[in-house]
Amino acid sequence: MKCDKKIKKRSGRMQREADTVAVMIHQYCRRLKHNDSEELCADCAELLRYAEQSLAQCPFQEGKTTCGNCQVHCYKPSMREKIRKVMRVVGPRMILTNPIMALRHAMDGLRKKPIEEKGKKE
Description:
By secondary structure, the chain is an all-alpha fold. The chain has one domain (12-109). It is built from five helices and no strands. Helix 1 (12-31) crosses helix 3 (77-90) and helix 1 (12-31) crosses helix 5 (99-109). The chain is globular, with a radius of gyration of 14 Å.
């Protein structure tokens, strides 16, 4: 699967999360035939932009768990429902289409709480 639109380079965990979300949204859009071309439809492109912004503003950054396990919900309710729909459709198939990405995402999801950055105490 070709995924041209990547978020500006980050390190480690955040880049994996960004890549996973981008691949899932692209697969969802293509699977439901929202568009005849390889480009995302307007709704899916908006969701991808929103997801990228949310990841960029995540307070936990490299210490984050998967968004589904996080106590802080960065997504507004309508967008959260859209991304859940994408995950329900594409998530189970990820092990077949992108097995390494799916396994790494599952391992990241084992972390139940975000890790606080060192030196940051509230």
